Fold this sequence. Notes:
Blueprint: H1 2-25, E1 27-28, E2 41-47, E3 52-57, H2 60-65, H3 67-71, E4 83-90, H4 91-96, H5 105-112, E5 115-124, E6 134-139, H6 141-153, E7 157-158, E8 161-162, E9 174-183, H7 189-199, E10 204-205, H8 211-221
Antiparallel strand pairs: 1-10, 2-3, 2-6, 3-4, 4-5, 5-9, 7-8
Helix pairs in contact: 1-8, 6-7
Amino acid sequence: xxxxxxxxxxxxxxxxxxxxxxxxxxxxxxxxxxxxxxxxxxxxxxxxxxxxxxxxxxxxxxxxxxxxxxxxxxxxxxxxxxxxxxxxxxxxxxxxxxxxxxxxxxxxxxxxxxxxxxxxxxxxxxxxxxxxxxxxxxxxxxxxxxxxxxxxxxxxxxxxxxxxxxxxxxxxxxxxxxxxxxxxxxxxxxxxxxxxxxxxxxxxxxxxxxxxxxxxxxxxxx
Length: 222
C-alpha cells in the first residue's frame, strides 16, 4: 500500500510539474497579435512569492473611471498618488491573512478548494522600476483602455455600483470590493493577472498559477 501511494504521489507531482512547465512554455495567444500603436502607457506587474498585482498610472481619466474609489475614502486625488494597484483573489485568504504570521488553516483550505473572490485596490506613490519583483510594459492607448475595461468588469456591481467591503483593508490607502468569479487553486490571482495582461496586448503562458511562471512567460513572449 505504501509503495502504491508513493508511486501515485510521485506521478501526481510529475504531472503537476509537467503541466506547470507547459503552461509557461506554451504561449497564449499562440501567435503574436498585429503590431500595436506606440506604447505611451507604462503599466507594471508587481509580484511576491504567491501573488501578483497590476499597477496602473494615475491620471484624470483613470480617476474619473474609478471614481467610486474616492467615494470609499481612498486618496486617489492626493498629489503623491502615482499608481492604482489592482489585484483579484480569494476572499478568505485576502481578508483574513494581512500578514504571514496570521496565516490560518481555513483560509488556506478555501484557497485550495473554492472561495468567493474580492478585488483589492491600493493607492501607491512612486514604484521602483526596474526591480526584481516589478516588470514594466509599455502599451498603447487602445490596449490601455481595454485593460481598464477588464479591471472594471471584475468588480461585482450592486444597486449603487461596485460594492466596498466595509472598512476592510490593510491601511488607509487600500480597500476591498466584492468581485466577480470564484477563486480556487487552478484559477487564482495570477491567472487573473495573466488574463488582464492579454487584454492589454501582451502574451503570457497558457496557464500561470504562480507569479514565477507568469514572470518567466512574460519575459519570453513580450
